[in-house]
Design brief:
- The complex is a heterodimer of chains A (510) and B (329).
- Chain A has 510 residues and is an alpha/beta fold.
- Chain A has helices at residues 45-52, 75-80, 98-103, 113-127, 142-155, 172-187, 199-205, 228-236, 295-303, 331-336, 359-364, 379-391, 408-421, 438-453, 465-471, 494-501, and strands spanning 7-16, 19-29, 33-38, 60-65, 68-70, 83-86, 160-164, 191-196, 208-213, 216-222, 253-264, 270-281, 283-288, 310-316, 323-325, 339-343, 426-430, 457-461, 474-479, 482-488.
- In chain A, helix 8 packs across helix 16 and helix 13 (408-421) packs parallel to helix 14 (438-453).
- The radius of gyration of chain A is 25 Å and the shape is globular.
- In chain B, strands 1-2 form a two-stranded antiparallel sheet.
- Helices cover 72% and strands 2% of the residues of chain B.
- Chain B has helices at 3-30, 38-59, 68-96, 101-126, 137-144, 153-159, 164-182, 184-194, 196-201, 206-232, 245-255, 260-279, 285-292, 294-309, and strands at residues 133-135, 236-238.
- The chains are: A alpha/beta (510), B mainly alpha (329).
- The A-B interface holds A 55, 75-76, 91-96, 100, 103-105, 107, 111, 136, 138 and B 183-184, 187-188, 190-191, 194-195, 197-199, 201-204, 312-313, 318, 329.
Chain lengths: 510, 329
């Protein structure tokens, strides 16, 4: 067997603007090895892999394949060097068969579907995939689509396979099958890099684990000699003090009861599994979890935007203590009760604001149905917009500037400001500080704290564990749609939360 | 001449322009471009052919000096060129500049009809005609000439009595079907129309396929206009004579479920429905108008049935009408 590493990264650095995605990463993958890459959200795992597969080009550093320095400028170059990446989002034509998708774009062989189907079948048999080459993609389950993606890469002769969170979409049984296949490919001499957050999977499948934290390569350890505890510690690092002013909750009273909540996602997969908790007025409840563990669905279920399979959500009014079942309410009725959702998704403008409308008009999106005249009364929203601009230090030429032209942080301020202005009783904020600089982040923390002191039940979905630990009173940890623990933020540690976050699927066998 | 043979023959002749138009539009739509400019492009194809023929006829001293080869080649190339160029405008606007396809298509149709009427009128004036009509009858003879004798009974009348362009229409429909179904080129084109991002990731040049299919599709549709004026009308161009045939061609795309070989049968059915009010004796004026809606009613019925069955294979290409641009990160 070749003793040189199949692929070696030396001092690879990548920055996006002022953000350092990867800093001086040194990493190597051997022939016939499965290397797991472990790290929190935003630790630079995917960026690093994208540089190997030709989607990004490193600012600094060198990449060697079999000891030879290579330049990878495009996915095509990566293919030429035998590197294939299986992305989380499949790139397949639904209407085509597996075979048609696999040969799509290949130009240097005779067009013969029958023969191609036989080659696909041969590849499947060799590694133990189960796939009907003539089946159309739209008839396939998620795991079959993933198989097609993997074979697509193998068919093009890849020797180094990169899988970006391949188990996120699979059931435990399918995961086990995938792992068997990966082991067979490893024994065949292929190098496999697998990105994942799930610790037990890392321990089950990999030979070595490389840990990234905040863009830097922290360590590479042999899987056989490590433990979950050691990996968690390497992953989350030491606690950083942020000095966020946190007051003790004053007469916290139950505001929202969630009992046994179950929800299904788009493809019929369970995204929320028996979720129960109580949110108190006058307290900030943090929600921690790996991205896509069901945070979004949970908030949307409360706001009435997500269909609920079973379970109850009960709202207790702060004035008269009356209980209301939110399940049969429309989103508008839920809003009238004072439940507000400010959701900052990945693209910021995706939910809650209309990019082409100005700040005043965006304020009116919430109040257009008030007023008795046929014509819109633009004065109140205009005052509100000016208030928000002044108080939250929104940087904008005027209240009449389209929201789309504001910088990300300012868009977030407008969004959060609007929801707070309506005097909510429950305020849900998801990733409100994503992409914001330090000062703006603190501004938002203070806003949330001010709401808490007013007796509002604040639910804060965050990604930075340090922030969650210092801002929140209690933290609910969610893993694969399940509540894996509710901890006291004052006494808990990053390690404890980190372990809970990765626990979601731990009873999956393996 | 039996009534049936007569009916079949007339239905075929009515259907051929629609077949050209729908085959061209299917080719275009398979790349994800919804070209609603097809009625205008067919119209431009017609007038371009007439212009070519007109100048060729003018350049000759007498009709006897006419060469059959040139008499066919010049209008044919003129029609392909005219229709192709207008499609190129559409392609540039929608693919390169990513303009809205519906708006651009409708603008192209308006432009195409205006273009045709303008040159139709101008040429008519040049030819000294009082009305906006114009004749290139001499050239038309070559287009109308059937390959073998058409008067040899039922078979001859039903199958052999057409000008060569009718056979070309069927041939192109078959070739496009095979191209789409059985070749790598077709696979790539369908991938572009279904999911351009995936095609792009697989190394397929999405823009080139879209341009190719749109311009070629437009040129094929333009032949429909040429057939209409040279064969069906016998070389007489009159402004606005083309009627709603362009829209029928687009309706035929839906009727044919994006399959050009179904389009062959579909064009015959549409042609039959089109002439029904003329064939049935003693229809009142209002009934004639009612019968004229039949092709559209049939198309709506097909739409309802296919939408209800929800079979993926009979749906329009998934990214039809959407412009594609690579997401920059």
């Amino acid at each position: 067997m070749n003793t040189l590493p199949a692929i070696e990264l030396c001092g690879v650095t990548k920055t996006f603007g002022s953000v350092i995605a990867n800093k001086d990463v040194n990493l190597d993958v051997r022939h016939g090895e499965i290397l797991a890459i472990l790290g929190e959200n935003g630790s630079g795992k995917t960026t690093l892999m994208n540089m190997i597969s030709g989607i990004y080009y490193p600012d600094e550093g060198k990449i060697f394949i079999d000891g030879e320095e290579v330049v990878i400028k495009s996915p095509k170059d990566a293919f030429a060097h035998g590197i294939g990446m299986i992305h989380q989002h499949f790139k397949l034509v639904d209407l085509f068969t597996a075979t048609e998708n696999i040969i799509l774009g290949i130009k240097d062989e005779k067009y013969n579907l029958k023969q191609a189907a036989e080659s696909v079948k041969a590849l499947c048999d060799r590694y133990g995939f189960e796939l009907d080459p003539k089946k159309k993609i739209y008839e396939m389950a998620v795991s079959e689509k993933q198989t097609v993606e993997i074979i697509k890469v193998l068919y093009r002769g890849a020797e180094i396979l990169i899988l970006d969170e391949p188990t996120a979409v699979l059931t435990p049984q399918e995961t086990r099958k995938l792992f068997d296949v990966l082991r067979k490919m490893r024994d065949d001499g292929k190098s496999i890099i697998i990105i994942t957050h799930k610790l037990h999977e890392v321990l089950a499948i990999s030979d070595r684990v490389a840990i990234l934290r905040k863009g830097e390569h922290v360590a590479t350890v042999d899987t056989a000699t490590t433990s979950e505890a050691e990996l968690t510690e390497l992953m989350v690092g030491k606690k950083v003090s942020l000095n966020i002013d946190r007051t003790e909750p004053r007469d916290a009273t139950p505001r929202l009861f969630v009992e046994g909540l179950n929800c299904l996602g788009h493809d019929g997969v369970k995204v929320l599994d028996n979720v129960s908790f109580t949110a108190l007025g006058g307290e900030i409840l943090g929600i921690a979890g790996i991205a896509g563990s069901g945070q979004r669905e949970l908030l949307e279920a409360i706001a009435g935007l997500q269909h609920i399979e079973s379970g109850t959500i009960t709202y207790r009014s702060p004035e008269d203590g009356e209980d209301t079942d939110l399940r049969d309410k429309t989103p508008l009725e839920i809003r009238e009760l004072g439940v507000r959702l400010s959701f900052v998704p990945e693209d910021r403008l995706g939910m809650g604001l209309v990019g082409d409308m100005d700040i005043v008009d965006n304020m009116m999106l919430r109040s257009y149905s008030y007023g008795k005249s046929f014509f819109l009364d633009r004065d109140p929203p205009k005052h509100l917009a000016e208030d928000i601009i002044a108080h939250l230090e929104v940087v904008t030429p005027s209240a009449a500037t389209p929201v789309r032209r504001l910088s990300g942080g300012n868009v977030q301020k407008v969004l959060v400001g609007r929801e707070i202005s309506s005097a909510p009783t429950v305020l849900m904020a998801a990733y409100p500080v994503r992409g914001l600089d330090i000062n703006s982040s603190y501004l938002i923390y203070n806003l949330l704290n001010a709401q808490k002191e007013k007796g509002v039940a604040v639910i804060f979905v965050g990604e930075d564990l340090d922030v969650l630990l210092e801002l929140c009173d209690r933290i609910l940890v969610i893993g694969s749609g399940r509540v894996t623990g509710i901890v006291d933020a004052r006494t808990s540690t990053k390690e404890e939360i980190g372990l809970l976050m990765t626990k979601g699927g731990s009873d999956d066998g393996e | 001449m039996s009534f049936l043979a007569n009916f079949i023959q007339r239905a075929m002749v009515q259907g051929i322009p629609l077949l050209f138009g729908s085959t061209g539009e299917i080719l275009t739509e398979k790349s994800g471009n919804l070209n609603l400019g097809i009625p205008g492009i067919m119209y431009v194809g017609g007038i371009s052919g007439v212009m070519g023929a007109f100048y060729y006829e003018q350049s000759l001293s007498s009709p006897e000096a006419m060469s059959g080869f040139l008499a066919i080649l010049i209008p044919l190339l003129s029609a392909l060129l005219g229709a192709g160029l207008v499609s190129l405008i559409y392609a540039f606007l929608t693919i390169t500049l990513r303009a809205n396809q519906n708006v651009t298509g409708l603008a192209i149709t308006t432009f195409g009809v205006g273009f045709g009427n303008f040159f139709g009128g101008s040429l008519a004036k040049l030819a000294g005609s009082e009305t906006a009509s114009l004749s290139v009858v001499e050239t038309s003879r070559y287009f109308k000439a059937s390959i073998v004798g058409s008067d040899s009974g039922f078979f001859g009348q039903v199958f052999l009595s057409y000008g060569f362009l009718a056979y070309v229409a069927i041939l192109i429909a078959v070739v496009v079907t095979v191209l789409l179904r059985r070749t790598r080129l077709g696979l790539h084109l369908r991938a572009v129309g279904e999911n351009p991002a995936t095609a792009d990731a697989a190394g397929i040049n999405v823009g080139a396929y879209k341009y190719g299919a749109t311009v070629l599709g437009g040129a094929v549709a333009g032949l429909g206009g040429l057939y209409y004026v040279m064969d069906y009308m016998g070389g007489i161009w009159s402004n606005n004579g083309f009627g709603d045939r362009g829209w029928l061609a687009i309706a035929l795309v839906i009727f044919a479920l994006w399959n050009p070989s179904y389009g062959i049968l579909g064009s015959f059915i549409f042609g039959g429905l089109y002439i029904l009010p003329v064939i049935i004796p003693g229809l009142s004026r209002s009934m004639v108008e009612f019968f004229a809606t039949f092709p559209y009613l049939v198309t709506i019925a097909v739409l309802v049935v296919t939408s209800m069955r929800k079979k993926r294979e009979t749906q329009p290409p998934a990214s039809l009408g959407l412009s594609y641009f690579r997401e920059e990160r």
